[in-house]
Every structure is written in C-alpha cells, then in structure tokens.
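Appendix B. Extra example for self-study. Work through it before the problem class; the solution is given directly after the inputs so you can check yourself.
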Amino acid sequence: MKPIDSERLHEECGVMAVVNHPEAPRLTTLGLAALQHRGQESAGLAVADGHVVHSHRAMGYVSDALTDEVVRGLKGHLAIGHVRYSTTGSSNLRNAQPIHVTYKRGSLAIAHNGNLVNAQTLRREMENEGSIFNTTNDSEVILHLVARSRQETIDRALAEALRQVEGAFSLLVINPDTVMVARDPRGFRPLCLGKLDGAWVAASETCALDMIGARYERQVDPGEMVVLHADGRMDSYRWADEQPASMCIFEYVYFSRPDSTIYGRSVDQVRRRMGEALGREAPADADVVIGVPDSSNTASLGYSRVTGIRWELGLIRNHYVGRTFIRPSQEVRDFSVRKKYNPVRHVLQGKRVVVVDDSIVRGTTMRKLVKIIRQAGATEVHLRISSPPITHSCYYGIDTPIRRELIASSHTVPEIAAYLQVDSLAYLSIEGLMSSVQATEGFCRACFTGEYPIAPSGVGKDVFESETAPQTPSS
Amino acid sequence: MKPIDSERLHEECGVMAVVNHPEAPRLTTLGLAALQHRGQESAGLAVADGHVVHSHRAMGYVSDALTDEVVRGLKGHLAIGHVRYSTTGSSNLRNAQPIHVTYKRGSLAIAHNGNLVNAQTLRREMENEGSIFNTTNDSEVILHLVARSRQETIDRALAEALRQVEGAFSLLVINPDTVMVARDPRGFRPLCLGKLDGAWVAASETCALDMIGARYERQVDPGEMVVLHADGRMDSYRWADEQPASMCIFEYVYFSRPDSTIYGRSVDQVRRRMGEALGREAPADADVVIGVPDSSNTASLGYSRVTGIRWELGLIRNHYVGRTFIRPSQEVRDFSVRKKYNPVRHVLQGKRVVVVDDSIVRGTTMRKLVKIIRQAGATEVHLRISSPPITHSCYYGIDTPIRRELIASSHTVPEIAAYLQVDSLAYLSIEGLMSSVQATEGFCRACFTGEYPIAPSGVGKDVFESETAPQTPSS
Amino acid sequence: MKPIDSERLHEECGVMAVVNHPEAPRLTTLGLAALQHRGQESAGLAVADGHVVHSHRAMGYVSDALTDEVVRGLKGHLAIGHVRYSTTGSSNLRNAQPIHVTYKRGSLAIAHNGNLVNAQTLRREMENEGSIFNTTNDSEVILHLVARSRQETIDRALAEALRQVEGAFSLLVINPDTVMVARDPRGFRPLCLGKLDGAWVAASETCALDMIGARYERQVDPGEMVVLHADGRMDSYRWADEQPASMCIFEYVYFSRPDSTIYGRSVDQVRRRMGEALGREAPADADVVIGVPDSSNTASLGYSRVTGIRWELGLIRNHYVGRTFIRPSQEVRDFSVRKKYNPVRHVLQGKRVVVVDDSIVRGTTMRKLVKIIRQAGATEVHLRISSPPITHSCYYGIDTPIRRELIASSHTVPEIAAYLQVDSLAYLSIEGLMSSVQATEGFCRACFTGEYPIAPSGVGKDVFESETAPQTPSS
Amino acid sequence: MKPIDSERLHEECGVMAVVNHPEAPRLTTLGLAALQHRGQESAGLAVADGHVVHSHRAMGYVSDALTDEVVRGLKGHLAIGHVRYSTTGSSNLRNAQPIHVTYKRGSLAIAHNGNLVNAQTLRREMENEGSIFNTTNDSEVILHLVARSRQETIDRALAEALRQVEGAFSLLVINPDTVMVARDPRGFRPLCLGKLDGAWVAASETCALDMIGARYERQVDPGEMVVLHADGRMDSYRWADEQPASMCIFEYVYFSRPDSTIYGRSVDQVRRRMGEALGREAPADADVVIGVPDSSNTASLGYSRVTGIRWELGLIRNHYVGRTFIRPSQEVRDFSVRKKYNPVRHVLQGKRVVVVDDSIVRGTTMRKLVKIIRQAGATEVHLRISSPPITHSCYYGIDTPIRRELIASSHTVPEIAAYLQVDSLAYLSIEGLMSSVQATEGFCRACFTGEYPIAPSGVGKDVFESETAPQTPSS
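Solution. Structure tokens for the complete assembly:
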C-alpha cells in the first residue's frame, strides 16, 4: 500500500500511552504522529475511562486513521496507541494494533513493539489445546497467556505471561483502569517514561514526549513492569531476572529520530560520533561531504567535522512525491530514486563527493543514486557507510529481507563497491560503532555479526501466514 | 447508523453459501443482496480456494460493503456470506460476520443466523479457563468449541460443538475446502439448499436462490449437518437427536419475502391465509382495504378477498427517503411517518378504511400513521393486525424490545385501540394463525404466548456488552 | 454509474424550493428525496440568506450528495434544489445542477427541469459573440440571457431571457433574496406551489409537499412567473402570451408518483382510468392480473376492476439489488431481470396471466421478464400496456433512445408480440389515453404520435457533447 | 482545510505541462508532485488527445486529487496541470484549476500562476456587458477575453487577451491539439521549458523537470508566447513589447526549491549568497548556527561559512504531524510550534545560538520558536533573517496578509527583537539581497520596499468574493 524504501531496514512499530489526563486520547494521537517514522501502515488507539475500554484501528497514516472525528468519539483519561509498519504480505486491518479482547476479568488491549521468537511454538501449543486466534500477530499469544493466568492482579498475570515468551518486546497493555508498561529482560526495543503535569506518559522515543510537552523521566528498565493507575499512582517492579542487555544498536544507526533520547543517550550525539569514527577510519580525498537526507545528515556532519571536508546540501528530498502512486508505464530514467531525491547540481558539479549513508541493504537503490550523483556532475563518488555491513536478518522486530538479499551477506566490500560503481567504499567498523555508543557490550548487533542474543526458534514475521491464515484483502 | 423502524421486529441475519462454482464470491454477494431485508447493518464474505480462507466484512448495505473491487479481490470457488442487523448499541465492525479465525487445523470462518441461549454461560466458563474473545457475538463461542474438539474431522468437531450449545442457529462454516451447513435441532430459523449446475447453494430464503438462478432442492432439516465439499460432493447426517420443531412463525408474519419458500411452504400463501383468517374473524363495515406497504400487502389482499371489501393502494412508500439522515430541527408534523409513507388522498377521502398491518410493537408509529390516514380524508379507520398481539420478547435471534415496551404486554385490545385512535382494532387469533400455517404444532410462537421452547438462561443480545466489552466506535 | 432500466423512459429532473423558512435547506433536501424517482444521478442545493448564495452539488443519490454535514454547512432561509438523471455519456459533476454563477447583479443559481429545443442555436450565437460555457447543459444558456438583459429587475430579466428560448422548462432561479419560479408557455413539465406555515414551497410533484407537511396550493400556470421574496411576499404575472398547452402525458403514464397531483389531477386516478380503459379495450381470458411493480400496480388494479380478473402480487421487486454492481462474469440466466424482479411462483403456477405494464421501450427486458413468468409456471401470458406504442423520441426533457431503438417505431403489434413471446399483446389506444385524462387536447403526446408541439431545431441532449466538450471523468 | 504556517508567505500556484508524450498525463502529475510546495490545497489536470480536452480537479494534495485511477481515466498525449494554495476564505473546488470551458472554437482549459491587477476592472466591464462567471478566479477573465477575440488562431487570440490584462502570470493553455505557454512582460513568476526525448515540458521550476528526467532548455522569456503542438513542433514569438523585468525575488528567498534553477540562476547558489551576505553584514558572537528547516538550511550554511561559526542540525521537522488535525483542547504548551519543530537538546544546551530564518511575517510563530530554543538550553538566541523586513503586501500572486499584520510594517527592528525576545536581530539589507542575485535591477522587491512595478488597481485575492460570490462549502 505505501511505497517501501527497499534500501532501508524498517522498524515495525511505535507505541505511546498517556494516563490520568483528560485529553489522553488526543495527546496519544499526537505522540503517535511524532512516532510515525516507526510505522506508516496502520494506526490505532485504545482508551479507557475507568469502566470500559474502547478502541479503533485503521490502515494508513495517523492523520488518516485517527481523524479528529474518530478521536472525539473515544472518551477516556487513559489511552494507548500504536503505529505499525509491515511488508505487503501481511498488511491488513486484522493485524493492526492495539488488539482488543475480552477475557475473564473483562476488557484488555495490547500495543506491542518487537517480535517474539517463541510465539510460533506457543501458538501451536495453545492451538493444540483448543485456542483460536484472530490475527497473525505474535502479540495475540501474550493475550492468551494473560487470560490463562491464575494470578490475582492483571499486572501479575501479565508478568506471568511475559515470563513464558522470549524475544523482543516493549509493551503497553490497557484495561478499564490501568495501563501496564513492560519491557523484555534484554531491552531489545526502546521505551521511556515521562510526565505531563499529573499525567504519566510512555513512548518508544522521547520525541513523542516533546511533541506533547511532556518531561522525560527515564527509560523503562529491561525486565521492568510499570503499572500506571487511572488516578495517577504508579507502581513498578522487576518481573524478570536480570539478563545481559541486548539493546538494538540500529536504533542509533537509523530508526530513531535524532532529536530523541534512546537507552538514555542522545541519538544525535551517538549518530554524530558514528560519522566522526567513520571519518577517522576512512577519510577521503574529496571536495565535499553530503548526507543522504534526512537520516544520514547527522552522521555526515560528524564525518565532515573530523575530516575537514566541507559539508553540503547536495540532495533534496521530495517530501510529497512519496505518497503519489502514479508511475510512468514506460519507466522514466531511474524514476524510483528521483521520486525520493533530487541532486543540487551546482553543489556537485566538478566535485569529488563523499556520500555518507547509514546503511546498505540490497544495494539497488544506492546504485541508482550514485548514477544520479554522477549525472549531476560529480567527478568522483566516495561512499561511506556509518555502520558495519548488514550480513544477517533480524528476529527481534525489524523488517529485514532474507539473508541472501542482503548484499553484504555474500559480497566483499570491493565487490559491493564495484557493483555500486563508486570510486571508494568504506563501512564503519564494529569497533567504531561500539566506541560511538561508548560501550563494549549491552547491545544487540546481530545484523552485523550474526551473534544472536536469543536463538530464533522459528523464522521471520510471516510465520503465522501459512496457507491457513486469516487475511482480509482490506477493510 | 441506519434508521430503524421501531414499529417492526427485526430479523438479525441472513446467510448464503455457494460451493463448487468459479463465481462463488460473486453469486454469494448477489444472494446476500436478495436477503438484505434480513439485515442492513453490516455485510461480509469469506471465500476459500481449496488452500486458504480470505474474508472481508464492513458496515453498511451489501452494495457498500461488498463492492465489485472487494469481491474481485476475493478469489475462490467456495464462499459463505452474512448480512446483519443490530440495534445501535452493539453496532460495530467487530461484531460483523463472518467471524474468521485460525485454530489447530488451520483457518475457519462462521456465518450465523440465530441466537444461543446458553452462550453467556459457556463464554463465562471458557473465559474462566483462560479463553479470550474478540467479539461480543455469541457465534464466537461456537468457534471456541470447535477448536477445543478432539474429533478428527472438522464437521464432526462442529457437530460436537453444536451439541453443547442451546438455542437458535442456522449456520454456515467454511474452511479451506469445505462448507458445513447446520441447523439447530428445533429448526428455529430457516435454511434451505439449492443447486446451480454442479454447484451447491445454501441460503436463509429461496429468494436468494432465485436471484442467482439456482434450483430449490429442500430445506436443511433441523438437527442436520450438510457437508459441501469443494469438488461438488455432498454428505449429510443428523448430528442431534430429534426434538419437537419450533420454527419461528414470525418468518411468515413479517420477516421473509413473500416470494420465498420457508420451511417448505410458500410465504405468500401462508401470509395470504393469515389475511383471510383475519377477514373471517374480524370483518369490518368499510369501503376499502389497504395494506401498510410493502410487508402487509399480501395479508391485506387475503383480507379483501374474504370480506369482499375493495383492495386499494392507499399508501405509497418513500423508497429513497429512508437513507436520508436529514431531519428538520423544528420537527415537521409527523415527520418520521411521512418519511416512510405518503397517503394517496383520493383513495382515502371520504372512505371508511380498513388498514391491515402485520404487527404492532410499540404502537407509536402506528398512532402517527392513523393520524395521517385521517388527515387524508378517511372517515373511519379500522385496524386489522394479521398476527396475534406481541406480548413477549424473543430469545432466538429476533430483535425485540424489552417486554414493557411492547404495547400489548400491558394493554388490552380496547386500550390499544383507544391509544391508536382507531374506530376498531382486531388481531388475528392464535388459532387463526395456526390454521394459516396449516399446523397445530412445530412452530415457536413464544412472542405471542410466552411459551418458550427453550428456557432462556441469560437475556437478550446485549448480554456480552457489559462494562468490559470491546467496542469500536466505527472502523 | 447507476444501473439504468433500459425498458423505461426516464424523467431527467426534479426540482424543489422553500422560501422564508428557517429550515429551508433541510426541507428542500427532504423534498428532493421524495422526488428522487425523477433523477438519481446527481443532486444539488443552492441556498440564500438575503445576502449571499451558496451551493453544493455532487454525484449520487440525495442521501449521498446532500449529507447532513453538507446541509448543515449551507445556511439560509431560501433554498432551491435539483435531482438529475442522465445517460452515461454526459454523466458528470460539471453538468449537475443548480448551476451557480456571478453576473453584473451578483450571484445567481438555476435548477431546471426540461429541455430547450433552440439551446444549441442560441449557444452557437453566443459563442460566436465571445461567450464561454462551463457546462454542456442547456440551462446555462438561460443564465447567459439573464446576464445580458438590460431589464431592471432580476425577474423581468429572467422573463426576457425566457422569451428567447423555446422548449420545455419548469425553472427555479435563486438570487440572494428571491426565488423565481417559472414554467414554459405550453406547460410541458409539471410544477406546483404549496405553503408551509408562512413559507412558500415549489416542487415538481405534490409528493414533495406532502413529505414536509406543506399544503398544496395550485400548479404554476404555463407562462407564469412567480416571485417568492425572502420575507414571504409573493408576486405573480404572466411573462408569455397564452399558447396551447402541451402538458407531458407521460407523467401520468409512468414518471410521477401515484400519490402526487399533477396538472391539477390525481396521478393515481388518471393512471387507474388508463388501466380501466385498457381493460375495456383489450380484455383477456385469464385467471389473474399482475402489474410490473411498482409503477404498473395502479393501472393493473384498474384493469382488474373492469375485467373482473383477480388482481395478484405476482412479482416482487428486489429493492436492494439495484445498487449492487456485482455481475456474474459467466452470465447467470436472465440475470438483469432477476436482479429487479422475482416471481411469486405459486401465484403464477398453472395460471393464465395478464401482465400489465405501463410502456415498452426496446422490448429486451420485457422479453426476459415474460420468460421468467413462464418459468414460474404461467400457462399463458397476456401482455397489456397501459399506454399507446412509443414510436417517437422526446425533445422536451425525457431521455428516450433514438427512434430506431424504439421497438414500436418499426414493428407492428403482432411482430412485437412474437418477439416478446406472449400469447397476446395490446396497447391502450390514443383515445383511451385521452379519455383517461378526461381531455381531448392540452397534452403533448408526441412520443406516441410524432406530432411535436414545437419543432426540434437540433437534436437530443448530447447536442453540446461534440468532440470539443468539457468532460470530467468524475469529481 | 490544510494547516497554514502563518509565519511564511505562500506561493499560490505551480504549473506543469507535457506535450507529445504518450504518458503526458502521468508525467504531468509527477511534475506537479515535485511542485507541491507551491500549492497544497487543490490539484488538477487537463489532457488532450488531438480531438478533445478532458479535465479533473479536486481538493487536496496531488496524491489525493490525482490518484492513479483518475489519471488512468484521462487519456492524451498533451497535458497541463496545476497545484493551488489559497487561504481558507476562497478555498473550494470551484476555484481549483485548470478551468475548463467551451467557446466558439471548441474546448479550452487554463492553468495560471500569478495574479492580475486589473482583473476586477475587466470583470466588472464584462459583467456589465452581460457575461457570467463561474469562479472567483481572475484566470476566468483571460478565458473570456480569448473567447471574444477575433484573431484567427488560438495563440494569437490568447496573445490579444494577454495584452489586455495587467499583472503577473505564467500561463498554460490547452486546446485539443496545442499547449500554449506564456509569461507576462515583466516576468513576475518563473516558468521554464525542458525536453524529454521528443516531448516538450514546461514547469514553474526545474525540479519538476528533474522529477521526470527531462532536460532543462531555458526559461520562457517575459512577454514570450511558446506554442507546443501535439506533433512535437514548437513555435515561439513575442506577444508584448519589452518591459523592464520584475522577477519575484522572493522565489530565491523562500518559495522555490533549492535544487531548482529559476530565472536562469541556481536557487541554492543565490540563497547561499544571501546567507553569506547576512554573515558579513551581521555576524554574531556565538557558538553554533542553526537554520529553521528545511527552507533556511541553505542560507544558514552560507552564514556559517562566512562567520566561521559551526553549523548544526538544531531543529528537527515533524514531517508527519502537519497533516494531523488533532489539537489538544486544553492547549498544550506552545503546541503549534512543537507540531512543526522539535529542538535537538544537546546541540543547543549551554550554547549561544544563531538562528537563521528566511523571513518574518507576523512574528507570532517565531516568538514561540525562540522560547522553545531557550527551553532546550540555549543561553543566547541571535536571530538572523536572510531577507529584508517585509513591509508591504504582494499583488502579484503571493498570499501576504494585509499590511498591518506584517510586524515589520509598523515596528522597528529593535521593537521586533524585543517582541521576539531575542538577544539580537538582524535582517539582510536590500543591497545584500541584490548582491546575492548579482543584479541591480530586473527584480520585483515590492514586499520589502513598497515600490510596486505595476500599480494595483484593486486589492488582494478576495476581490471577487463579495457578498454575491458563488461558493461551495466543499464538493
């Protein structure tokens, strides 16, 4: 439905909650809009007023799915929300979140960022015991586990459920008078807490707090359960034993907004240091440095700072064209790239250009971009990537193609350089990457190394989309 | 959402299936359009191609919910469909059918006409065992029971499930290569089988068979399970012990279309005999007989035949106005009735008029209609109702108001006549009703007598809509 | 866009006005809904509040085009409205009415029922003088003439404009503080006046007055100009010399609703007499009489009365299927007719059936209908048409096919009977028709006789749709 | 409808044409998407195939108004298109372009960027002569003049029409086999020509040529008429005597994209020089320079270069939030600005910050932005504006507020600085501006100086929106 940039990995979700605020549904919606870069396929809201949970989900951007009319119809002072990205395969309303069900204690809705590695196994077990599933979403497994729990309180039931699943999750769960906020024991995906006057706020990134004027408090700890009550009280406890952290390092490379604070560190600062490390590791004899906008601007500034090569705005992003589905049937030259970027000719003409980008997935788009930069007059193109080569797929909530489509999984750097037709190519080293986050451990970097913190039992996200899966072509 | 005629009881659903036909989805949609009078709130389709089940549901008429584009996107040679009516309370996409889930054997969707009287009890039991529910629909209970069954085949699993539920149901269940057609042991709601070339068809009423040119074969027997295979084979067996039949007699009074055959009898013929019996029981000294269009035309013709009073077209129905949501804010005189009917003045002017209607629910609309008929010049208005007074609510799939809103539950016929301001009022007797169906037993007539064939354990259809129920304001 | 019944002629428009009422826009919209049978392709409203004219037009039914939200946005105590039918060719928003323009005196909008026979000539003249046209509608010509007039008042300017056009028109024109109501000197198309408290109402048919509870006053006279002022005053004068009346007799045959009063006569009464005259002219040896619903019910009742043959409900109309655009790609047997009507089998089975219909255009649909009636078991089918054979096209506002497509233009009655495969066929005679309207003159019956009251200078309604015409594919 | 940034002036239109290409409608639509920054309220297309002109216009972005389905329905190898911005007042479909009419020679459609200063006078004259107008658009005046012309060819007729109008216009006119491209004699608004294989392309900015891979040829000269024939031939001649050029200098300040070439100069280069001149004129004692994204990035880079102060990404733009209409009813702190920008805290914290923006209109938004920058920790805020103070309204196609709302029309620079609460404020001088465009004359800079090249006879763009104007609330 939405045009997908095959040259980027994609975050699968963003989540947001506001508790104890008369405008919780509106504020949550605004926060979701600030998190839209984390998922553009569907958006949803579940709200509660102390007595009942109502919800709405629809395909499309936050602005399309959660219109003013819809949000006005959802009354409550507690709210959770979700934005979702997915590839075309399982892209339908049925899989949008929050998922909203009833069970023995009443009504419950869940918004989940991440991916469970043992969901398939659990699901098969539960199906064999007679359970039915309405979605192909792994989050539904958690709801089943909560419903089966004999714990007396909902948060203890959720904790019990979470102890049975493995993988990556930053979760929001709402019932009529509480929002529970939980993060997996390894902290794969980010999740933070903030306050707005007497209200509690939770969000994937701090830019969502900033949007509504909330104050950043802290990140939710890996293995922590935070219970936000309708009346403003907050409880917190550990639901899991401590484990080595495996925070997704790609949040710093590409996913998160530079104005966000993630895992307690400024994304802008970390990303800047990646560019600086890259500059130290792989300088170039060139006239100008340009970033691929908007995501690589920060790293390219760092590269420029360290190398002393002048930073320039060499590519302009076509913000409006992305939504246009018109495509010339006689393919215009390199249309797919032009649709995204236009070079500033006189900036590039006659120049030896360093292009800084954050990552290379398949290489096809980058190859076209290099061609366009050359057509604009660049005499040399030196490509610098502010992260190591992506050689492995992710099983923790990031949409990566299967391994063989990752160009770096089967090609050396010189081979990639030849394919891309660049004069030189360099990636940031793993060491450079780690020095940029100023840590030696605590991060998942499996996409660069293949060292998976948790063994994936099944496969990717289409695991429930067997021949028997429910699918709606649209709704 | 849709304007509701508070002077009528409402059927809650219509169902349709086509198996082993390359155009199954299209033909099912056309059949649903012919059954639209049974439910106008939502419509849905589930199709299968031997390998996978796909589904689509949406709010609105068949023409809005199942557009050509949607139906073209649903490929398969097996299909089931559903139209649903409901009061505003639980009117949302979540409750639309077919309900589509996955379970241990794969994918499954259900379309259900009727109401289970022990659904609440079963649901509470299952919730207590840890099950979760996605809808407030009693049909979801059946899916849970099927999923829990250890029977080896899907139809045997369905039969086992059905043996645990009580109440009224005419069911269609689809999996990737079979459609199962089942009817409750008392046969509360109608369901028939037909053939179209090599294809099998099932539908609530025969008018849906006629629409697609299918040949009527027979009704599905109460307690029968019919298994329609993707390749055209058909199996059938009894899944329940024989029980006394309790076919809903109101199908003849109002719900079914006069061109349909229901429970093996022509609706037109039965309805005609009701008018004739009414004419014999309660003749009138009058100049013309009119029916309230379109539903009472048939009975009024019977009344005219027996009494010899001239039949006339005295009221014209505004077919297009019903969909208009414009309402004058300074209420125009008797607007709600004028919106539906306009009198033909010269037919009524100076005449003593017999008005035949099929039933009276609350009496408020009828009172306004009587006033309009008098304003058009009628000198006397004699109201004749072609069924007995409705004194009790229905628990088997018909939307009736709570008892105290039924005018006949607490008022005598003379009191009702006084309220309606008619010169005389008579209802058809129970005996007259039974003679019209040419039977002394085999029918449920609880709404007239309070003699419920199966004791309702819970209450009406809002039973799952407690404070904790999931509700979407729209989707 | 909308399914078209090729076996009927089609009215092209209905108009409605309410002046001096705080709810004028709402009431006008309700009136348009009552006139929906006169045009289902587009609907529009122009309102005024004494200072400014606002308007809205859209494709579709009144309920779709003039939603509550749209009507709430149109404030004023004067309003005119329009519903339009058209064949696919010129079916687009650009041609929807009211047409709304500015000119030297300010703002003006027009709603027009009818067709001008010299519009093409006038348009060419004006184009040659340098005028531009925004629509392919002949009504725009009138606006140009009004704008060119040097008369001091708007109504005198309109009168001057109308003296230059020839043809059929029942017109409503609104400016910021007046609604003008005018009818052509021959009175081709109906138009009536009513009152609702202090408000004036004008409408094509009285059923629109009834809808809003307005009292019928009188018809607008041919050649009359009625000026309705914002403050409730009304002026009236003749703007044209008296001419022989040429009221469209087909309004009685088919277009108007039976509950309307047209040209001062009850449609029901006239239509009934047509059936009676037909019964006297062409009785049949048969068991039952049925009408083709809903339009032929009235005439068939008259036929039954006179012949003594029992009247029956033999065909049920599928009210909901018409809006469905699903069509089986392998054409199901006689689908196009089944989509509209379903026979009541036991009423027809073994019977000799008289089918009364109001007219035959091409004959193709009727042929299929006869086949379906036979399949339902009729042993003989005697077709009786309650008007004479249609042999000529209409140039005064009715959508007729070109002559050669009219089956009666080139075939004798026996030939038509053979084509339709009926046992006998008879049409009402011209004399019978005239006796039914109880007049010998004053009516246009050109479609039956070819005697055109005004010579058509150009052609049909596609006259401005030359290769150069502006067309929007949709809007 | 769309959120409007009150701190910016707004271009009112962008235009695009493709002639002699089988994919002309698609390519034109893509070009319009690249020009979307020039107008986001409505979009339209008029296409021709040698025989007929078809058109479509709708409210909203190009992606919403010109969907793939719409564009597929518009066949032709000639196409013109238009995007429009407007304030809410006159924001309706009626005023969308291209305007499409018929006249004596056939069909004609116009797409117009600019504003005529004598349109009101001409319109009044034509209305007095009996003309009617369908829009409140000044472009309709040109169509009337073309229609009245007695010139033998359409391009000569257009030239004759253009000689009667005064003001700013870059025009595209399409008839069945030609597209005419014309620019006013002073060249107020940009317009350029390009080639794509054998096809001719015209566009407001070169970024639209780049989008479809077309080659930039040259700008259309002021006073030039370019005739592009369906077969690929091109004629060109002067239709007006030479006049001093008055190219809009604000295109360089803000409107045009930096990757475009306008009036033969690279926007990026000119804008860069503005920043450099500003740096020389008004350096600051500060730690970092930031631009207000995205429009001021280029100028801020120039400022940084000259002053040696480090350039930083200090504000992140919320690309997705702009389309969200949700607004907290209890206004969250400085919501309107947060909705657009979020500060990167650690970049600003403890820093003396130079903020470079391109212009100040009312000052209200800037005041909030300064506050947000301070809240993010900036110790000093030095505001530098890369153009002179805006003291006068524009009459040539730019949406400026009335004079008294322009803060610089009635306040000195120190007063503005006080109001904005900045530590220092400086604007670029007129001399600095002119040196940046490397010219002393040839530009209109009336908004900075009040020296209007052509005296405005009437007023702003609401001139036709008197009490009598036709307005549709939506369509």
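Self-check: Residues 267-281 of chain A form the longest helix (15 residues). If your reasoning did not lead you there, revisit section 3.
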